[in-house]
Amino acid sequence: MSLASSLHLGDAELDASFPFHLAFDRDGRISHAGPVLQRLIPELLHKPLFASCFRIVRPAVESTFAAITGRTGELFLLESLARPELTLRGQMLAISGDIVLFMGQPKVTEIGALVGMGLSVRDFAIHDAVVDFCFALQMQNTALAEASELASELAVINQELELRVQARTNELLEANRSMRLILETVGQGFVCVEPDGCLASERSAILERWFGPAPEGVTLWDYVARVDPRAAESLRLGWQQVFEGFLPLELTISQLPLRVVANERMLDIEYRPILEQESLVRVLVIASDSTDRVARERSEARQREMLRIFECLMLDKDNFVESFTEIQRLVELVIAPVEDVVTSKRHIHTLKGNAGFIGLASLAAYCHALEDRMAEASGGGPSDIDISGLRSLWALLLADIDGLLGSQPEGEIRIDDEEFNEILRVVQANGSHHEISAMIRSWKLEPVRLLLNRLGTKARALAQSLGKRELEIIIESSNDLRLDPARWRTFWATLLHVIRNAVDHGIESPEEREAAGKRANGSVTLATSVESGRFVIEVADDGRGIDWAGIATKAKQAGLPHQTAQDLAHAVFADGVSTRAAVSENSGRGVGLAAVRSECLALGGQIQLDSTLGEGTRFRFMFPASTVAIVPSAAREREARAERQKYRRQVA
Question: Is the whole-model pTM more than 0.85?
């Protein structure tokens, strides 16, 4: 590049502006000389090397081009080797980084001698403006050079930064890929859900295997509805409450469904709130495949259930068979088309209680969950899905239990040792045909005492499961009283609700009883009698008694009469009113006693209820005496016959 182009000037403009200058290339060869110097030193036209034309006078440095270019910006005195009388004064400036320019003029003492060569003084004049221009140009070029160097450094830094960013990005991508592989291997799916229920675009690939592809903008409940409509509806109803903020976040999230059934796979669902500045912005939903674990738990539960059924069967086969027959009747009533929701609820509640007492834990648990769903449905009956599930569960249980029971002979009559010995004594004593036939007919009836013993066994087992120590059971009855099992079976099945209430509601914990000055062990009395032409069944406990003020409040809320003691006694047996504050697996729905009352009235009976807070509760069920058979023992029959004969002799 020439000096003129470096200064953005033409050659003529350069000579006019800088009449007295020298320019060198990077090798130290003179590439251009001003017109004045060309006239003074014609040798310069041949572009010789700097060192062959000039000697440096000041500063004291070597007369080499390298010495000059290394000290640009300083003042120099140069002596012409061809014209020793000519001494030049000026500065070395760097232009464009490639050309060094010497701007100078002869010493004043020599100007006169030079005029004789045909040069004027103005030929040697260098204007300050030109010098300032060149100096500014040098500074600009220096700044540009520094900027260029900085740009090069920045380019290197940027390149290194880009390499680092790319390396970090690759690491993150690899970490994400590894994490995704890990998460999919452990059988979990993750997705963030927005406040409006829409799924975020980023989600685990395994979700598509469970639920199928997710369209853009699909809501969580619509996505789940493909495989589990019931869980989807629960999600839809509960999601809005989560973000409304009226109820505690933990409470609303706990109401969302925790399990989804996806094409025969069990998925446990977990909800983790994502907060920003203490405000809920979205929810992370985690679905975990629990199919194998649930199958294992069900298998273990079924084994435990079958063991419990076998124990109940061995303990009292007759009771088991009778209870099982009643349970089968209740199942058939529940799965039949619902005409009366209230009656359906009673059947389900009774079915739950009876199933639990003979070890059918899965059936009892299903009925309890069914009651929960019916309560959430605001009083509706069981859904088609619920009925289908109950039918499938019962078919499975029926197959297992039939295998244990085997074929049951129809019309079989069993008597115990006491009954056998009694009939043997009557025959040996030449008893009357009437007496013997009455005893034989009674074998088809059930001794009331046996029924009470069975209730006592169930009450004691329930007390132990509730941690209420050894419950004292008091039986007051005789084998003289017998009942027709076909007629009374349903009543005795519903009477279990009274037993459950006595143990669960009435009997306090050992700590509460001792604090109240009672024995740690509670007691339940089961009694039957015939008095004043009525057959009476009595269930009493020495527990906490009924909170009549609480019953009055519940009766008022239900729109029932609640002014008198009789009103409150009636309210105890009303549907939806319970003496318990909270629902449990055993009681608290306000259905059981209503079912007992219904069966009692169906047999022509009446109910008397007495309860004192802190002392206990007594239920008396009173029926016409004609509903019970009184079978006297042979000894009492002989005593009665002797009395009748004695009376006849006295009359004679």
Answer: no
